Amino acid sequence: MEETYYSGFNETDYGGYSEPCDKNDIYEFATLFNTILNSVLFSFSIIGNCLVLWILIKYESLVSLTNVFIFNLSIADLILSSWLPLFIVYHRQGWVFGEVACKILNAFFSIGFYSGIIFLTFMTFHRYLSVVDPLSALKAKNPLFGVAASLLSWLISICASIPVIIYKAQVDRNGFIICEYRDNLPHLVSNYQQNIVFLIAFVVIIVCYFSIIKTLRRSRSQRNHKPVKLIFIIVVVYFVSWAPYNIVMLLQSFEKQQLFKSFRDCDFSKNLDYAKSVSEKLAISHCCLNPILYAFVGIKFRQHLKRLLHYRPCKHEEQTTSIRTNSHDHYHNNDGSLY
């Protein structure tokens, strides 16, 4: 995952095309579009995900594996969105923060992408075990399992982002300083790597939900339906948000390799640049959507949010103790999750 900058396109050049390709209009569109949306997405993501973290810490038990994954998913969303104001400056003035910041910020974006999809896959697989193989799910209730799964997820995400740290650099393009890959090869490797991870996660999640639905149709119990429903909605929203970006990124990789004749056409390339700019914001908008989904679908989350909004200092200790006790008791009867 990366923020695309178009200042290098505000000059008319051939760029491998059969005729001059003027992309100045894309630069103007991307600058205005990113300035507005980055501001909105940053504000909503910070407020929403901080609320989720506060509710989990204050009212819920992190013994629940699902709560652990939701906690980490909110952190991943904060990592992905917390740097958006810097990219507003980037789109207007070029990269003015130095090469170290170029590597670090893009690494954070990459880590946010990989950790988000890994935690969603783990959440789905955990729900799959709870429905299809409850005995295996009981073994996973050990708190150490949640810690180990979290550490493994972050470690994989960091390792997957190492190429970004190595190959991202400040590049002078037509007098503008941008933060980009110096060569096509590492850029292509990074793009294809993200596409493959996204596809693998998609296949795993589809297989899990196919088995879950098949099992629930044979079961008369309604106990697992609500958690499955919320996780299913979260997963669907995630893939609707990220699929267009991955498709556009794949097409741009094909364009860089000029695999087909149409990829040498200026109009096609410009449409692809417009699509990249819009799909990036759609993908990042996912950072704001999970808290909204918890509020609309998660009954317990709504109850905790109401308590937080009607917070009374004198009753704080008594209320918190009572709520945590109820959550702990509920954990032994169910999975004790946020919803």
TrEMBL record:
| Transmembrane feature ranges | 36-57, 69-92, 104-123, 144-166, 196-216, 228-245, 282-301
Localization recorded for this chain is:
Cell membrane
Annotated G-protein coupled receptors family 1 profile domain ranges read 48-294
Q: What is its main location?
A: membrane
Give the record's keywords alphabetically.
Answer: Cell membrane, Disulfide bond, G-protein coupled receptor, Membrane, Receptor, Transducer, Transmembrane, Transmembrane helix
What is the membrane topology here? Multi-pass membrane protein
One Gene Ontology molecular-function label: C-C chemokine receptor activity
Q: Quick check: keyword Cell membrane in the entry?
A: yes
Q: InterPro entries from the xrefs?
A: CCR1-9-like, Chemokine_rcpt, GPCR_Rhodpsn, GPCR_Rhodpsn_7TM
In residue numbers, the region (Disordered) covers 320-339
Task: Please provide, in alphabetical order, the Gene Ontology terms of the cellular component aspect for this entry.
Answer: external side of plasma membrane
Q: Which GO terms describe its biological process?
A: calcium-mediated signaling; cell chemotaxis; immune response; positive regulation of cytosolic calcium ion concentration
Q: Does the keyword Transmembrane helix apply?
A: yes
As for family, the record states:
Belongs to the G-protein coupled receptor 1 family.
What protein am I looking at?
Answer: Chemokine (C-C motif) receptor 2
The organism that produces this protein has a lineage beginning with: Eukaryota, Metazoa, Chordata, Craniata, Vertebrata
Encoding gene per record: xcr1
